[in-house]
Each structure stands twice: as structure tokens, then as C-alpha cells.
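Field log, afternoon session.

UNIT: design team B
ACTIVITY: writing a sequence onto a fixed backbone
BACKBONE:
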């Protein structure tokens, strides 16, 4: 009477409706449930639409150029050459985006943990190697936790008055999230965004 069943079935509507039923059950809160469902649906759509970008490889910033040893200090060149994991030729920039996370010059990252004390690095240069892996050249900083503030005060680690530089792959960072420093009594302090677990 109505032709093929595919012209009148409601399977696509039921599939969409399943998402809202599951969200309502998981929320355990039915105060203004329509707002909860709308916000959850929009966040899910934003995640779906951005997933190819999140899963894509590393991308340098707009100021990228080929890495030339004549343009950088001997400290930077030495740090890059000591990192066996990066493959030449390299490209460099002041920023790099890896899996949707943007690393900028002067941001801080957690690069190590020695004797339960975090070691931070201040990003000096961002690199992209021939295999598509992202890396950062950082200025190594010693940290001390300020128990009263819950922050880490950082000081540049030096050898013979020269800052210690290190090249680290982004995937080898202890915490993927780049951090900003806040000036407290004239000294830079860092607040962690995530718990950092010591790798054994």
C-alpha cells in the first residue's frame, strides 16, 4: 500500500534517538533535561567534526622554515644532534600542533621526573622531522613545589652560566599539555593541569 518499507521506516530516527536516551540515563539529572541533551549533542558533534584534525600528524606554524645550523646557537645545534630520535632533514617554527594540541615558544612542558621532583622545560624551538614526528627544543628548568600555593617555582638550569638545552619528542613528554608560567614575587610559577605519574 505504501510501497517499499525503506520509504517509511524510522530506523534512522531510532538510531539518533538512542543517543539521547543513553545521555539522559547517564546524566542522572532530569532538571532541564532538554538543555543537557542539547549541550551534550553539540559537544558530540564538535568532537566528531574535529576528529580528523585531532588524529592528524604534526603541523608547524606559519613561520616554518628549513632547519639551518647556521641560524642557531651551538647549544641548540648540540641539543638537536644529541636527540637520536629525530631524523634529518628538519623543519622548524615557533609553534607546532600535535594531535590538536598547540605548543608555542615560551610555554612550559614536563620533560622528566627525578627523585619525585618534576623537571620542566621552556620551549625554545619547535621541530618537525622527516618522519613527521614533532619535537621541541627546551631550556631545562629545575622546579621546587610551593606547598602553600600548590605551584611549582622554576629556575633555569645552567652549566658554566649557559642554559642547558634539550631536544625532546612531543610523544615522550611526561604530560602532553603545554603550561603557562605565572609571576609570583618576581619568580615564574607553574600550575599543573593534570596529575603527572612517574614512569617506571
Amino acid at each position: 500500500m505504501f510501497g517499499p518499507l525503506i520509504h517509511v521506516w524510522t530506523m534512522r530516527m531510532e538510531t539518533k534517538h538512542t543517543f539521547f536516551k543513553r545521555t539522559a540515563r547517564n546524566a542522572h539529572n532530569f532538571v532541564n533535561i532538554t538543555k543537557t541533551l542539547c549541550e551534550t549533542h553539540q559537544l558530540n558533534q564538535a568532537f566528531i567534526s574535529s576528529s580528523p584534525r585531532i588524529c592528524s600528524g604534526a603541523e608547524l606554524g606559519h613561520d616554518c622554515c628549513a632547519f639551518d645550523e647556521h641560524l642557531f646557537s651551538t647549544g641548540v645545534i648540540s641539543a638537536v644532534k644529541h636527540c637520536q630520535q629525530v631524523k634529518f632533514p628538519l623543519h622548524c617554527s615557533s609553534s607546532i600542533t600535535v594531535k590538536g594540541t598547540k605548543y608555542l615558544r615560551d610555554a612550559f612542558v614536563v620533560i622528566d621526573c627525578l627523585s619525585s621532583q618534576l623537571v620542566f622545560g621552556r620551549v625554545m624551538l619547535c621541530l618537525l622531522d622527516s618522519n613527521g614526528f614533532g619535537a621541541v627544543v627546551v631550556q631545562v628548568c629545575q622546579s621546587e613545589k610551593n606547598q602553600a600555593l600548590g605551584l611549582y617555582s622554576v629556575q633555569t638550569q645552567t652549566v658554566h652560566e649557559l642554559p642547558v638545552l634539550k631536544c625532546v619528542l612531543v610523544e615522550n613528554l611526561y604530560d602532553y599539555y603545554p603550561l603557562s608560567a605565572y609571576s609570583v614575587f618576581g619568580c615564574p610559577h607553574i600550575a599543573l593541569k593534570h596529575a603527572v605519574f612517574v614512569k617506571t
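LOG NOTE: The longest strand covers residues 134-146.
NEXT ACTIVITY: expression trials, pending approval
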